[in-house]
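quick one: guanosine-5'-diphosphate bound model?
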Amino acid sequence: MAERTIAAIATSLGEGSVGIIRISGTEAFDIADKVFLSVSGKKISDISGYCALFGEVRNGEKRIDEAVALKFVAPKSYTGENVVELSVHGGTLLVKEVLRAVLTAGAVLAQPGEFTKRAFLNGKMDLVKAESVMGLIKASNTSELRISQSVHGGGVSKQLNAIEEKLVSAAASIAAYCDYPEEDIGQINEETFIRELSCVALSFEKMLSEYDAGKVLREGIETVIIGRPNVGKSTLMNLLSGQTKSIVTDVAGTTRDVIEETVMLGEVPLHLADTAGIRESNDEVESVGVSLARQRLESAQLVLAVFCANDKLTDEDIKLLEECKDKPLIVIINKCDLGEEIIGDFAKGTEIVRMSAKLGQGIDALKDAVARVTATENLSPDSAVLISERQRDLANRAMLCVNEALNCIKSGVTPDAVGVCVDEALACLYEMTGKRATETVTEEIFRKFCVGK
Ligand code: GDP
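yep, here:
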């Protein structure tokens, strides 16, 4: 059965200068002609593709708004199908009314991600690229956007295609050898074979090793600022966020709640939490704050432990350092502008950054330390990296199969066993790009999209 023609509001709901209703499918032109009347009297069905008409959208006799209708002819459209985009004024109720008219004219409401799903099914993009589309839309920091742009630009797909070529050629030579073992054409050049498969294994290894760093750049990292009262935690929070988020005073115990803010430090988004200074206190409210600070410490992925440069190390400092020794940690010796009494040796073996949060000194050193501790220093957000657990899992499975194939060759196992491993690696690759992905897999991916995309 032919796919029904779908429609949805393609722009975000809210006040905007333009709102777009997208119609896609075999009936797109006829449906659009039922709701759109051009000033020139021309019909959308009759004009050439990639032409626009000016006129009005109507629901029966009722004029809804003036509109521009833009025509795309299959297969040269986003979905690969016939598409019409109706641009009207961008009012929420207005675009909803236009959509209702389009649905009344015969279209069905698109499911979440159905336009992109159709684009995928019509060979407009592979699954890896499709998965980057929501990253482009939802990116909440520049690193996530840059990674999504690289993947959407084909960076990962290109690498996967190169791997596919190597695996297909390996699978073909094994198949030829198994089919015609006695003939020359089937002879496997073991050295070349091992070289090519090792190269594939290395590519997967690199992708996997970069995945975690890419995830940090895309999603950011839960970071807690802790330390005794008055060491400069709130001043640091304000310095990093570029605004007064936390109250700074000389009075110990001022910050009692957890103050949160997401900041970019270099390429890394830090979800910062400034906490109450950790100390024993008889004040009930402050004690609750201290307990919240400890909870944050527990769940943090990165700890910025702040110490005061011009104080001697206290027992509380040592206890605090002990509490965060199992976490990715950066020790900040703050107030360096006042001279240094504290001995840096106490935190030997950890990243130590000397700063003056008050004077804004030491930020670059902190940036470098964060990049090192989060293992993102060698990864540019413009690199093409895997962007979902699904892709990571399949890359890992493919790599294991390729390694297994290499072990088989080296230990002299029969070529057909090697062939099985190579075929399994290929199957993982095909699932990754969507060449052979099941309906359930594609459903799962596009379910996370928004309606209209
Ligand atoms: P918190 O209790 O750890 O959050 O500390 P605050 O950020 O409230 O700072 C306590 C006091 O130390 C304030 O008077 C700040 O102005 C001061 N302070 C913070 N950082 C520095 C610094 O780097 N140098 C100097 N000289 N004073 C600082």
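The longest helix spans residues 190-219.
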